[in-house]
Amino acid sequence: MAASTGLDTRRITSYLLDLHGHAHELGYRAMQRLAFEQFRALVPFDGGLFGVGTIQGGKADAHDVFLFDKPPELMISWEQVKNEDRLAFAATASPGTTINITVSDGFYDGCDRARDHCARFDLEHLMCTAHIYAEAGLFWVMSIYRSARSPAFSESERIMKELLSPHLSAAIRTARVGELRTITRVGGGHGQVAAIASPSGLVLEAEPGLVDVLRAEWPTWRGPMLPPSLEDALTGGIGRFIGERIVVHADTAEGTRLVHARRRVAADGLTERERQVADAFALGESHREIGDRLGIAPATVRRHLANVYEKLGVSSKAELDRMLRGVH
What we know:
By secondary structure, the chain is of the alpha+beta class. Helix content is 43%, strand content 21%. It is built from 12 helices and 10 strands.
């Protein structure tokens, strides 16, 4: 146990290992529920909220909210009082810092509607942590609540939440992207970053690194809308963009688009036929088998492979396989 904070490091380590392990096994909603259920074993609470949204023109808009052991009416009520939600303002003003408040201590004095909202849903003790990916125009927020019948959250519990909240956000994002990859049957190749976008090109979720990859092609890009030229290419029928420095492709699933972006590699310079021949050869097909399947002569297959080897600067099948791996 860490003496300075009272944190049980063994329990924290066990929680994190379990959390990130399940992120690759569970679907989006199941992962959200499990994350809260297991976190409650570390920090007891009555209910919670996890939300993800976008920031445009300085305005935050939550587009996906998961309520844990609280009724959906809570969000309907909150919409009417959100302009008085000092806790949300404090959390977003200090990203990464967990804010710990007790309503009866006067935190909402002068905000009668917000105070009534808390009383209606038995929210007396609250902790909230926000994380902001400003360049992508995204935010994540996690709140947990206790009723007036329970003690206030302690400082060690606040530190615990501050420490673990980014892991919860990351694990839930992994599960969400993984669920869409399962639906679309698209894997994540080496060097790729994933994002989830709406049909209109609004980025709803993104892995770390998305901004760096997109700015390699559009240096001034800032989310949450995809760059117009990228959006045009992705909606133009083939769902693919090949730029001077990056490659992006998109697959439709669950009313959204799963977007994968990566930097260009030498294999992106292959023609479609060269790529077909190279893929088949790397998988072990002979020149004759490739020719029969593609309707070309074995000699033509050899010429294509010679071009491929020259373009990629490789001299063996093992090197060829390595160069092609993860390229879509």
